[in-house]
Design brief:
With 423 residues, the protein is α/β, with parallel strands linked by helices. The chain folds into two domains: 134 residues, Aspartate Aminotransferase, domain 1, CATH 3.90.1150; 261 residues, Type I PLP-dependent aspartate aminotransferase-like (Major domain) (Aspartate Aminotransferase, domain 2). The protein contains 14 helices and 15 strands. The strands form four sheets. The protein has a seven-stranded mixed sheet with strand order 4-10-9-8-7-5-6, sandwiched between helices. A four-stranded antiparallel sheet has the order 11-12-15-14, with helices on one face. A two-stranded antiparallel ribbon has the order 1-3.
Length: 423
């Protein structure tokens, strides 16, 4: 069986039309220099080799030009975010002007909620999933409190139905049908960070809009992982980070989508800063704020060049590879991993339907308290880089840009050995 699986993995790696892209990344090694099996792009993507050159170029221009680099750098700094726009539009399925690279995910979420969460009358609540990523929950709860309301009553957290580990989209629709008139904003993940479950954003947006709710999405685990179509899905807004599947580096600039119907300068009230001002008159330094058109109008500060530069390199790779080709390989990688997990005494938390998941598979090892963590530690000792979440889940994400089928096989073999040997 091992020989059969190895032949399968090597054949698919040898015939993989995307295999050359893996060479464009620097993957981590152990202290002794041995290559590690890196399956943790859902937490931090590896470094594109070209990122070093792009960052070095900005440092060189800073040293060479200082303030003159704002207009005279090889990639001028004033419009630097424009270099990221096309790649982000492609990955999010946005129209021109609907996306902007700025800030970090939670800062962008606060900016979006400041505009789109306007509690009034009985429409005061925000709907999120139970077990949402803590930063999202903190942001939402604090926004509710900021309006003088009580998060204990105004925050609705939808949990899976009894006997299920996953939230069905019909559960969301059912809740909105029953309580939609109380809800101001639905904030939902594109991919749930713990379970790896992917959602139909268009269906959720339709359900939200039917009852008058704003539909917003956290795409931290979706962008660069799944093909997205935010404009067609009719999302009102979306936010994301760029250090996971987008491989933008630690602290990378985040991003934001605002549907074009909200993008007029006279659109929703917003927290303003000078970089959201109409660029034609921004440097006149007048006291009044005239918002730029589209998502750009939500910018508050000039772009951080050194945390944007690696994303320039990464988006060029995505453009060359194509998200549809990446998705096809991702489905095959995850399917191979699922096949290898079937004989092992573990529980797959992530949906088995490829359409309802991305790269990540979440594996529950919950037979004995503490055993899952010990197994994870053994994997780490054997050069496997994945992710542990208390109390009993290992998250694994074979990413199609740089992971191989043989990486998946190596992980499954090491997991099987650890399950057999760890008490």
């Amino acid at each position: 069986m091992r020989s059969e699986m190895l032949d399968y993995a090597r054949h698919h790696d040898a015939t993989d039309s995307l295999r050359e892209f893996g060479r464009q990344f620097t993957l981590p090694h152990s202290l002794g220099g041995a290559p590690l099996v890196y399956l943790c792009g859902h937490s931090l993507g590896p470094m594109p080799r070209a990122a070093r050159d792009v960052v070095a170029q900005e440092l060189d221009d800073w040293g060479r030009l200082a303030v003159l680099g704002h207009e005279g750098a090889r990639r001028p700094w004033i419009p630097y975010h424009e270099q990221l726009r096309s790649g982000l539009e492609h990955l999010t399925g946005a129209r021109k002007g609907e996306v902007v690279a700025m800030n970090s995910l939670t800062v962008n979420l606060h900016l979006m909620l400041a505009s789109f969460y306007r509690p009034a009358g009985k429409r005061t609540k925000i709907l999120i999933e139970a077990g949402a990523f803590p930063s999202d929950r903190h942001a939402v709860a604090s926004q509710i409190a900021w309006h003088g309301l009580d998060p204990r009553s105004e925050l609705i957290e939808l949990a899976p139905k009894a006997g299920s580990r996953l939230i069905a989209e019909s559960d969301i629709e059912e809740l909105l049908s029953a309580r939609g008139e109380e809800i101001a904003v639905v904030l939902w993940p594109g991919v749930q960070y713990l379970s790896g479950q992917a959602f139909d954003l268009a269906a959720i947006a339709r359900a939200a809009h039917r009852t008058g709710c704003i539909a917003g999405f956290d795409l931290a685990h979706a962008i660069g992982n799944l093909p997205l179509a935010l404009h067609e899905a009719d999302a009102d807004f979306a936010v994301w980070c760029s250090y996971k599947y987008l491989n933008g580096g630690p602290g990378a600039i985040g991003g934001c989508f605002v549907h074009e119907r909200h993008g007029a300068a006279s659109g929703p009230l917003r927290l303003a800063g000078w970089w959201g001002h109409d660029p034609a008159t921004r440097f006149e330094m007048g006291p009044e704020f005239w918002a730029a058109q589209g998502a750009d109008g939500w910018q508050v500060s000039n772009p951080p060049i050194l945390s944007s530069a690696p994303l320039v390199a990464s988006l060029e790779i995505f453009s060359a590879a194509g998200i549809e080709r990446l998705r096809a390989k991702s489905v095959a990688l995850a399917g191979f991993l699922e096949r290898l997990l079937e004989p092992l005494p573990v529980t797959l938390v992530t949906p088995r339907d490829p359409a309802a998941r991305g790269c990540q598979l979440s594996i529950r090892i919950g037979d004995t308290p503490g055993r899952g963590r010990r197994i994870f530690n053994v994997l780490e000792l054997h050069g496997i880089v994945c992710d542990w979440r208390e109390p009993d889940i290992i998250r694994v994400a074979p990413a199609p840009l740089y992971n191989r089928f043989e990486d998946v096989l190596h992980f499954a073999e090491r997991l099987g050995q650890a399950l057999h040997s760890v008490p």
